[in-house]
Amino acid sequence: MEFAAFADRAEEIEAESADTAITEAVTDLFTDAGSDLPTLARFVQGRVFPAYEARTLDIGPRLCYEAIARAAGQNISADDVEQRLADMGEIGAVAASYDLGGQQGLAAFGAGGGSDALTVAELDAELRDLAAVDGSGSQGTKVDILFGLFSRCSPTEASYLARLVLSEMRIGVGEGTVRDAVAAAFGVPVDAVERAVQVSNDYGMVAEVARDEGEAGLDTIRLEIGRPVQAMLAQAGTVAGALEDWDRAAVEWKYDGARVQVHFDGEDARLFSRNMEEVTDPLPEVVDTVESTLDAPAILDGEVVAVDADGEPLPFQEVLRRFRRKHDVAAARENVAVRLHAFDCLHADGEDLLDAPLETRHDRLESLFPPDSEIVSQMWLSDDAGGIEDLETEALDAEQEGIMLKDPTASYSPGKRGKHWRKRKPDVETLDCVVTGAEWGEGRRANALGSFELSVRTDDGYATVGNVATGITDAELDDLTERFEAHIRSEDGRDVTLDPAIVFEVGYEEIQASQSYDSGYALRFPRFISVREDKTPEDADSLERVKRLAASQ
Ligand code: ATP
């Protein structure tokens, strides 16, 4: 398929507002996709790589503006593009507003008919090449490749290329739409598609199997060691609620660390964070422990906690710091050690266990380690509220966050925040907010950002809930300024608009209804707690959660 045809379809999809009409349009796109089906199943969601890869194109907005400016002509600079973005508000519209070459090239020979027409397959290959560019001069090479692509684009193509490159596709197509469209296009049950995606984390592959091999083919998709699945998540809950819904609750400590998925192929262990990023190198102790203890292939789910020289737990930010300090692990290791607490087993020795009840999965987990191994998180089965509360006190005394209550009969549902796992932590709730703007400091601090605009997810973007400046040291501000510089979209005096990229965990005293922010809510006395290195903007809290929290105050 030519990329121009995809861009036209994307424009049609974007113009629809009803969910059913969007699903139908995506269904038609998949039916007509031919060999481009896997690529299109990713492109409609604004993805170039499957969800199991943390890989991105790693193109900052500035690189993209430079490429657009070069394709637009001699007198246009990246600053001009940025200025136009500040006026128009959306990069696709900006890219479409310039003569990037497609018009002179293609239209002159009859649109779409020129031999130079960019195809979906070619674009996919070029973007993958671009992602692989590394080393000195890589930024220049990336701009060159992008410039080459934009110069072949009509306005509509340029619009969707810019959005794809900056991960801002936003045509109203989420995972649910793609799942339903794959089912409708190839006559397979929605459940079978959902299951296959949970297991493989790859919509492109699932769409192709659904088309070529039907439901029977989807049923054969298995977990693969080295390909992380999405983590099962928890809701907030109470002991009474859990005991009302289940005969017995499985109770575990809620460790104060970072989620890690362990993939052991029989020889080597690889580790992945909650957002699928590989964190094998930053956690060598965990790799050593797993490799020296396990003797058959396995996929485990667990929490990594940091401890001091006496084995006492340290705040979870210490683990996240390791994730960032990939180059200086040896030094980090001297001060802070990390330990794995494995609490689930998704695969053991050739057998997928996602569908097995938690109790069975936990038995299997125990069987992989020596008796009483400290690596296996202890799980108690109880129907006694008092006993469970005692366990919670023990967990808090051990400086962990609280307890997890799990339905012992439930299967493992990747990516689901359902009722089968509930968390109880007595601390005041915190919010994970996407930083969408900032303000430069004043006087002595004029070269550093000093305050940050906080937003939560909505159905079609982000809505602001406040600004945070409290709780951040000058050293942290300098570090944050350096990190945010790559994500600056535009500036107006001291005000900076940022591309959504970094997630802050913030505390607050209360959530108030307020017209000062576009969410309709404001955080009272927000304070910075940490950067959630393990979360992407998609994992940030939603407006729905803010509403629920406000209602429960
Ligand atoms: P939080 O900010 O509370 O950690 P979250 O959004 O990261 O929440 P949730 O699904 O809401 O994730 O809460 C469960 C989290 O608790 C898991 O992601 C995991 O990192 C952590 N955790 C600690 N101990 C356990 C355990 N025994 N079982 C499951 N998850 C655990």
From TrEMBL:
Q: According to the lineage, what is the superkingdom?
A: Archaea
Residue ranges of the TM segments: none
Swiss-Prot/TrEMBL keywords? ATP-binding, Cell cycle, Cell division, DNA damage, DNA recombination, DNA repair, DNA replication, Ligase, Magnesium, Metal-binding, Nucleotide-binding
User: Which cofactors go with this protein?
Assistant: Mg(2+)
Cite the binding residues for ATP. 252, 259, 274, 303, 343, 417, 423
Domain (ATP-dependent DNA ligase family profile): residue spans on this chain:
331-458
Catalytic activity, EC: 6.5.1.1
Which molecular function GO terms apply here? Answer: ATP binding; DNA binding; DNA ligase (ATP) activity; metal ion binding
* One family name in Pfam for this protein: DNA_ligase_A_N
- One BP term from GO: lagging strand elongation
> What reaction(s) does this enzyme catalyze?
ATP + (deoxyribonucleotide)n-3'-hydroxyl + 5'-phospho-(deoxyribonucleotide)m = (deoxyribonucleotide)n+m + AMP + diphosphate
Broad enzyme group: ligase
The yes or no answer to whether the keyword Cell division is present is yes
Q: Where along the chain is the active site annotated?
A: 254 (n6-amp-lysine intermediate)
Q: What does this protein do?
A: DNA ligase that seals nicks in double-stranded DNA during DNA replication, DNA recombination and DNA repair.
Q: Which family does it belong to?
A: Belongs to the ATP-dependent DNA ligase family.
Known PANTHER family for this protein? DNA LIGASE (PTHR45674:SF7), DNA LIGASE 1/3 FAMILY MEMBER (PTHR45674)
**Full protein name:** DNA ligase
Per UniProt, what is the name of the gene that codes for the protein in this document? Answer: lig
